[in-house]
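User: Hey, my collaborator sent me this sequence without any context and asked if I could get a structure. I don't really work with proteins. Can you help?
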Amino acid sequence: MFRNHRIRSLLLAAMVVGVAVAVPVTAAAKPKAPLKPMITKITPTSAKPGAKITIDGKRFVHVTAVKIDNLKAKHAVDSAIKITATVPKGAKTGKVEVVTKDGTAMSVHLLKVV
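Assistant: No problem. I've predicted the 3D structure and written it out in structure-token form, which is a compact way to encode the shape of the chain:
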């Protein structure tokens, strides 16, 4: 239970005598903020509605939605670094978004819808 022999001895002695002993407690590590997904590349850079595109990036875990020009797109998460999505009907040239439980990634460049 206690790895430090000196602290263990002091605690046992205090328990026998009935004395309260202050034991130093280390600060608990703060939980890290979740890491948001990141889009690094979209191929092809232009596509027609109904066409498939590939989204490369990082942290594609627990993906809840993919949006193209703010319209939900059908998608398949191929891996934590790759998603295949279909350009939705009615989409116009716009940014691509990947939504996860840890945050949203937005493409830097526009996907040109032709």
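In plain terms: Helices lie at 5-17. You can pass these tokens on to your collaborator as they are.
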